[in-house]
Amino acid sequence: MDSKKRKQRSIKAIPFGGNYLRLSPKELAVVLPLTLIVVFWIMPAIYRAWEKWDFGDNFRLSYNLRDDYWSYQQWCDYACQNYPVVFIGDSVIWGMYTDNEHTLPAHYNRLKEENIAANLGIDGLHPVALENLVRDFGGAIKDKKVYLYFNALWMNDPKFDLSAMPQKDESGEFETISVMHPRLAPQFDSTLYCYNEPLKKRIANTMERNIPFFSLANHLRSVWFSNQTYPEWMLDNPDRMPWAAVERKVNAIETEHINRDTPWNKPRPFKVSYNWVMPYQSRQWEAFINTWKILKERGNEVVILLGAFNTHLLDDDSLSDYEDMMDYIMDDLDELDAEYIVMEELPSECYADASHPLDPGYEIMAEQIIDEE
After folding, report:
1. Runs of H (alpha helix) within the chain
2. What are the residues whose beta carbons fall under 8 Å from the beta carbon of 113, sequence distance 6 or more?
3. 188 Cβ partners below 8 Å, 6+ apart?
4. How many CA atoms, within 13 angstroms, populate the side-chain half-sphere of residue 167?
5. Cα separation of 354 and 366, whole Å?
6. CATH number for the domain formed by residue range(s) 57-372
7. Which tens digit of pLDDT belongs to each residue from 284-304?
8. Which residues pair with 150 in a beta bridge?
9. pLDDT of 181-217, one tens digit each?
10. Where exactly are the structural domains of the chain?
């Protein structure tokens, strides 16, 4: 009996020891946060310093990287360190039907006879996405001259405006609406009825916008892993190690888009009807004003460009509603004491579609902006 008790006491005296590394609760409380900080914040900062970029004159982010917000942030940081003027907006600023030397910022630079303006446009950047891009990835935009472009196209229909209530289709299921740049949408806003991503994806999107590690992970997938997940890439490349695919220098220069000559009305003109959303009902306009406020709070001189929309293609009712909408918009801006330029309507042959100018149109717009300065 005594021998058995001694054996039990000896067993109890041995501390728990099944692991190679043992941490007390106090030690764990210190080590775990430090590990998370190193992985989620310090390692991305080291990678950012290691990575090399080629940002030349009249640079714009590659079309293929329009969803890579890590790359956008690096370009934004560089641009705000090296250029006193930045142009912000969607594909109209980016230059959908032009090459790098004929976008609106490029024409502005040429007329100024010096490279003082940077192109921070991205394709498909509707105002709701723009607001969160500027807030989460555009922190470097401070104390700059900012030309903030407003494209009325985003308010041409309640669905495009993201203010539409969900409707059921013939099968009784709610219709889905494609949201451009969904990772920049408000992830947990119950009033954004058209946004129906699963919870897991919403959480992942939120982490990407707030924790650099996840933004970096998406960047690596976009640039080096063909937008595949790591398991998918490894299955397709069984003879390669993942880290061997990653290079130090990133080529993010747009090379595919070129100048287009054909205007919207060739081979023949046509008319369209839009269901315009008035500013006091518009989610996109609310987000646009929020973006303006964020930029103003950072000490920027913000000039809003009320875009040269192609009204040549609007039918009579749509044109009348468009003019009413623009009147409301200017009233809102006057009430906010916001600085803005009403861009002149371009000649019909200077438009590629409803909102994108061709090269000659961009030159006219650049001339007007400089005349208004």
Report:
1. 2-13, 25-37, 43-50, 69-82, 91-94, 104-112, 127-137, 199-210, 212-224, 230-236, 283-297, 316-336, 359-372
2. none
3. 202, 206
4. 8
5. 19
6. 3.40.50.1110
7. 999 999 999 999 999 999 999
8. 306
9. 999 999 998 888 778 888 999 999 999 999 999 999 9
10. 57-372
